[in-house]
Amino acid sequence: MGSLRGLRLAAGNCFRLCERDASSSVRLTRNSDWKRINGFCTKPQESPKPPSQTYSHRVPLHKPTDWERKILIWAGRFKKEEEIPETISFEMLDAAKNKLRVKISYVMIALTVAGCILMVIEGKQAVKRHESLTSLNLEKKARLREEAAMKAKTE
């Protein structure tokens, strides 16, 4: 066991020495590249060639469907359907969808809070009537037994 541990330590030390030597040579390479990038190269710079094709940086447009038009109106981006242009950008549509998602989540939060309040009120009224799930279940079982007994008598 001791010899294995010594072997592992020696291998680790050797690896660290090799790693240190390799990183220093990489640093030298990176520094020389950095000098070339900054324009310290002794070669004369060639003039850049004009691009063969001209690229227009236009945003791709999308023709909205009827459902997407409704989303744009519900999100408040446009007031009327006639105001919506023939083509819109995907970014505009995504922004409208996100805004609508937020509105729907707010409605869901409000409905959840209202449901919780309603359940608390219902529970307090049930306590005033001295109703509980146990008493309701016992009444239901007694009623089912009576129906089963009546059915057995008729047969």
TrEMBL record:
Pfam families: DUF1075. One of its GO terms (cellular component) is mitochondrion. Keywords: Membrane, Transmembrane, Transmembrane helix. It is a single-pass membrane protein. Interacts with HSP90AB1; HSP90AB1 is essential for FAM162A mitochondrial localization and pro-apoptotic activity. Interacts with VDAC2; the interaction is probably involved in inducing mitochondrial permeability transition. InterPro entries: DUF1075. It comes from Myotis lucifugus (Little brown bat). The keyword Membrane applies. It is found in: Membrane. The gene is FAM162A. Belongs to the UPF0389 family. Proposed to be involved in regulation of apoptosis; the exact mechanism may differ between cell types/tissues. May be involved in hypoxia-induced cell death of transformed cells implicating cytochrome C release and caspase activation (such as CASP9) and inducing mitochondrial permeability transition. May be involved in hypoxia-induced cell death of neuronal cells probably by promoting release of AIFM1 from mitochondria to cytoplasm and its translocation to the nucleus; however, the involvement of caspases has been reported conflictingly. This is Protein FAM162A. GO terms for biological process: cellular response to hypoxia; neuron apoptotic process; positive regulation of apoptotic process; positive regulation of release of cytochrome c from mitochondria. The chain crosses the membrane at residues 104-121. It comes from the Eukaryota.
